[in-house]
Amino acid sequence: MGELLARSAPDDWRTPDAANTLYLQLDSGRVVIELAPDFAPHHVAAIRALARSHYYDGQKIGRVQDNFVVQWGDPATKGITVPALAGEFSRPITAASSFTVLPDADGYAPVVGFTNGFPAARDAQGKTTWLAHCYGTLGVGRDIDANSGSGAELYVVIGHAPRQLDRNGTVAGRVVYGMEHLAALPRGSGPLGFHEKPDEGVTIRSLRVAADVAATERTPLEVLRTDTPLFAQLVELRRNRADEWYKVPAGYIDLCNVPLPVRVSAPTPPG
């Protein structure tokens, strides 16, 4: 894969929109999250507004469940009420919807692939599409009521893809850089990975919209486009591994096992 990417052209890469990028700052470093306003416009707008109000700053990551999710956000700690939003679990497919179809069957959807860099699925009739819960997915927490999420409570998948959550939770984005800072967090000792004591849990130093951060302090990332012949070659390389170590190529690739290469186009500022 490294050799393939070394032959890539500038047009094979894209720069995430700073207005739809978040910087989650922990003591261990920066986590870069790309938002998905095409799929969850109302939740993305709410998350941006909450970030700009510094709502997330100083909050604890209250849940770290092994092989599942990292979760944070509690309006009660801020003494506020955040309005609930209607769930944005899927959206209609339009003529302008870009979609790179994967060649293999999926157990959770008739058709799977990538749209604008996000792993996604479609129904058999081609009427609706939704984002998949893969490793690094940013989702919106909610209660039993499907319309009880607000963006005040967020989670990131840190384990094996929990695809049973697809179309049951709003997906608002995906971590594209710094995932190790979330995956390595201490696991919670309570049920479902919740931290049981007030002094447990890592503190969020800040969560900012990248567009609000000085250009010199941004992390200059480029993400491989998923609508190019190069990406199709990458998928095939991963479907049928030709590395010397592999003796039996799988001839199959799972949606959540397709890598999304990201590169830093300039030195990363101290974090």
Shape, principal axes of CA atoms: globular
Helix count, DSSP H or I runs of 4 or more residues: 5
Q: Topology as H/E string?
A: HEEEHEEHEEEEEEEEHEEHE
Helix and strand content put the structural class at alpha+beta
What is the CATH first-level class name? Mainly Beta
Task: Give the CATH topology.
Answer: Cyclophilin
Helix content: 10-25%
Number of strands: 16
- How are strands sequenced across the largest beta sheet? 4-5-12-11-13-3-2-14
How many domains?
1
Low-confidence stretches: none
Cα gyration radius (Å):
19 Å
Calculate the terminal CA-CA distance, rounded to whole Å: 28 Å
Task: Report the sheet-strand fraction.
Answer: 15-25%
In short:
This protein has 271 residues and is of the alpha+beta class. The chain has helices at 2-6, 41-52, 75-78, 180-183, 229-239; strands spanning 13-14, 21-26, 29-35, 61-64, 69-72, 91-92, 100-101, 111-115, 118-122, 128-131, 137-140, 154-157, 171-177, 206-209, 221-224, 262-264.
